[in-house]
Design brief:
The protein is α/β, with parallel strands linked by helices and about 750 residues long. It has 27 helices and 26 strands. It holds the Pfam family Molybdop_Fe4S4.
Length: about 750
Amino acid sequence: MSRTALRICPLCEATCGLVLTVDDGRVTGARGDRDDVFSKGFVCPKGAAFGAVDSDPDRLRTPLVRVDGELREATWEEAFDAVAAGIRTVAERYGPDSVGVVLGNPNVHTVAGALYPPVLLAGLGTRSLFTASTVDQMPKHVSSGLLFGDANAIPVPDLDRTDHLLLIGANPLESNGSLCTAPDFPGRLRALKARGGTLTVVDPRRTRTARLADRHVAVRPGTDALLLAAMAHVLFDEGLADPGDLAPHLDGLDELPAALADFTPEAVAGACDVDAAVVRTLARELAAAPTAAVYGRIGSCTVPHGTLASWLVDVLNVLTGNLDRPGGALFPQAATDRTPRPAGPGRGFALGRWHSRVRRHPEAKGELPISALAEEIDTPTDEGEPIHAVIVVAANPVLSAPDGERLDKALGSLDFMVSVDPYLNETSRHAHVVLPPPPPAQSPHHDFAFNTLAVRNQVRYTRPAVPLEPGRMAETEILARLVLAATGMHGADPAGVDALVIDRTLGKAVKEPHSPVHGRDPKTLADLLTGENGPERRLDMMLRLGPYGDGFGADPDGLTLQKLLAHPHGIDLGPLRPRLPQPLRTRSGKVELLPEPIAADLPRLRAALDERPGGLVLVGRRHLRSNNSWLHNVPVLTGGSNRCTLHLHPEDAERLGVRDGEPVRVKGAGGEVTAPAEVTDTVRRGVVSLPHGWGHDRPGTRTRHAAADPGANVNQLLDGGLLDPLSGNAVLNGIPVEVAPLTAAVTETFEALT
């Protein structure tokens, strides 16, 4: 029998509402939900392929446990027995930091991934945390922490009301947006132009987004911070800096002109390969617009000065008076955010509270660089024990982190490894235990993380569209049991994990003077929670304590889980609103425009004024039908333009003797790969581009479609030695590479051997 069910798409950051067609317990179709309060019917190819993703025959259905060197199917009880024995043995023998935790970005797309990893980390007490953030967005977290005192206080462009949008290192027509949750990002950009607004794109490639722009600036990769610093210099030099109503909330404004004095348009022009007049025009247009927003993304983060570039994005928003105002860049307010506290000084944001063992990388936001994971496993030092065991949740760092060959070997040397993953992939193939979550249709969905980055305040929740199949275990229960097994409580009721979190959260809330439940009895409050299970009760608690919540009866019109369930297409909470100074957690209680770590890193940026790369440099690129390494096993999402080819400019191709479609060798500091050449003038001269997430050619995996067309692992070109020092983020863009036709490369190798 056929029916329909609602589901929020978990396949990218746009979080579009879907209407699924379900036949006999199987998803057979997916279309956009026209009644969804946020996405209003928009759907991209990934969302339309939800059923194919959900029913991929290579998804694991039962746990795997390694016996005599081979992974074999096991019961859930056997799997968690093995986890408890493996993790506890290592932790008790070598200490908590000997257990590493690796979290991939699918965690922020699931209810389970949002609710349980923090409990796992607290229970383990390990400082060996590595996440996908340090190959993606950590510079933005660090700059926000330093500017605003909260690493998660990230302003997003007010896309629907701005008059002028400057995108740097972002390609939302392919990515659907990132650190800016916006269903139909392309449509919003077209609407901006239709209402007379201006779109400027800074990118070394003429992307689909750049082709839509009024102005495209093909900057040299890795020089984004120099360009932004020069724009800020122009604003000061020409008297265009005008923070307006922001002025009372700013600290350090008077010091900025001197700090940026060396970054004139003429000084940066050579390094950026952008004419000084163009730099001045960009600054003047930004200042002259009635409202404007600067938005930087992964291309400006995964470079040597990623934190400085992220900082300067918000400095420009401040200097033009566009931070925290409609049409500019504002702080979203999610329904599950903490109860807003009164404005005032906070604890601030600290970097380097501890360091990695081998190269002494400072932590950022509680994390160590994932580029350092291999060395933390395979390199002994006098500074403590290496990592002996790893818990990997929804991550494939062998493909997504630098120097996958070394990490591949390091993971194979571990005493114990457990992987929570639906696939036996390049990373999970090393695990001693694999715990497979069910397909997404069998899980609930609420966007805890992405609603804090949404371009409109709203709240939505969908229960599982399809019941759990026999033999499956809910992802929330898997992670709750993992918490118990890894922290010495194996065998306890997994519902106790949720109960413990609820008790602690309510116990803290009743002591906070600004909380709507101040002075009340936490046990009485817990009894008021509704929901079918522990995760739903936790969601109900967060909604009720949040900025729109009912405060457990204090505001009868406020949000609860029951009210949300009564609105299956979501509840619109209105456009983004100015919130300063309430979100600030700095010690001064103000936006700290020139924090000490930023000032200390500016000399490194000044040195870059004289840098001129010789030869070719590499950048990545996104595909609309892909999301890192997730979706390459889904045939409907891997055809057409979704190809792992090396883009290079026709003039570079001619100089190198490269022909379109023929294989080339690409060599970097970490190794070399082979990929087909795609000669195109969409990439600027001196730049080549290879997409991220490919390289599905290792033995022992069970992703048949991906393995049939594996592509090349671009991160194998990196040795992990290049990092943004403030954030620990890997440098993935603007790295020097050598390119040669494969025939020439073979000849060269033969001559070297003989």
